[in-house]
Amino acid sequence: MKLNHQFLLSFKKAAGRVPAKWCVETTRCRHVNRRREVSGQNLWGYMVNAHQLRSLLLLAMAWLITGCTVLDVLLAAPTPAAPTETPPPSPTYAWFPPSSTPTPQVFLSPLPTPEMRPGLGGITLTDDLSDPSTWDTAASDEASAVIENGRLTLAVKSQVYMRGLRRDLLIGDAYVEITALPGLCRGEDSYGMFFRANAVAGYRFSLYCNGQVGVERVSVGKRQVLQEPMPSGDAPPGAPGEVRLGVWAVGTEMRLFLNDRYQFSVTDANYSSGTVGVFVNSAGSTAATVSFSDLVVQDILYVPPIRTPQP
């Protein structure tokens, strides 16, 4: 069987091999087969060389890529490192803080309460008000002064004033006490004690039935206020009531006490001695009645300090 030679060459180029069954009957086939074996070996060599070339190409490409990467790294501008923030110092805890040394306090010793009745001496007179002959007593339709049951009771009608003085007594510096017991008294009615007094003049220590107390100097029906009436918790507000009056007098100074509590002081040089007495006055539209008892007079042995005049 004859094959077209041009066809075989075309097939050889296309496949690189002439099929054996097509070369059985021709001498050319033997040459073709030998050439086929040589061509196959060359083709294998070419394939091996192509594989190595490919590996070399891949290795070259890898080297180039790696070299470029390293070069980029070497040529790249260094990135400045971010400044490291220094952490704030942690607070230091004082587990045992030092205690402040306390400043020693200076405690001043309290000053003693000044003695408002200094120099009290012995008792020079006590009177239980049982002897009518030792007091001025009287009785009328308007007023009366009566000693009865150890009390001297003064009673007046509305708008009437009356007083009673102790007879045969002359004192200068002394402390005098007497008890007053208002029985009928209201508003601005007043009662109290005379000190350093005589028939027409003296100092009048007044308690008002509205709970106030004051001092006046009386002379021939005229009066001079030495202490305006002021409230006192020791003055009975009205009647009935009971209060112990006391007057401490040395020189020109006189101090008033109610129930042994100091009230105030006044200074006056008009009268230096006299007797003691009591009074009651109705200032309103109603009568007033007050009883007195237990008169006590004490001597005073006291020399007031001399005040140095200031330049």
Tell me what the structure shows:
The model is unreliable at 11-29 (pLDDT under 50). This protein starts with a helix and ends in an 11-residue tail after the last strand. The protein is 19% helix and 36% strand. The chain has 2 domains: 5-73; 121-300, Exo-inulinase, domain 1 (Jelly Rolls, Sandwich). It contains 2 helices and 15 strands. The longest helix is centred in the N-terminal third of the chain and has 49 residues, at 27-75. Strands 1, 2, 3, 4, 6, 11, 12, 13 and 15 form a 9-stranded antiparallel beta sheet that branches. The chain has 311 residues and is α+β, with helices and mostly antiparallel strands.
Q: CATH homologous superfamily name of the largest domain?
A: Exo-inulinase, domain 1
Mass-distribution shape: rod-shaped
Average pLDDT level: 79
The low-confidence parts are 11-29
CATH class of the largest domain equals Mainly Beta
Radius of gyration: 70 Å
CATH architecture descriptor text of the largest domain: Sandwich
How is this structure best summarized?
The chain is α+β, with helices and mostly antiparallel strands. It has helices spanning 5-15, 27-75, and strands spanning 120-127, 138-139, 143-148, 151-156, 161-165, 174-184, 190-197, 201-208, 212-219, 222-231, 243-250, 253-258, 261-267, 275-281, 288-300.
Reconstruct the topology from this structure.
Layout: H1 5-15, H2 27-75, E1 120-127, E2 138-139, E3 143-148, E4 151-156, E5 161-165, E6 174-184, E7 190-197, E8 201-208, E9 212-219, E10 222-231, E11 243-250, E12 253-258, E13 261-267, E14 275-281, E15 288-300
Antiparallel strand pairs: 1-15, 2-3, 3-4, 4-15, 5-14, 6-11, 6-15, 7-8, 7-14, 8-9, 9-10, 11-12, 12-13
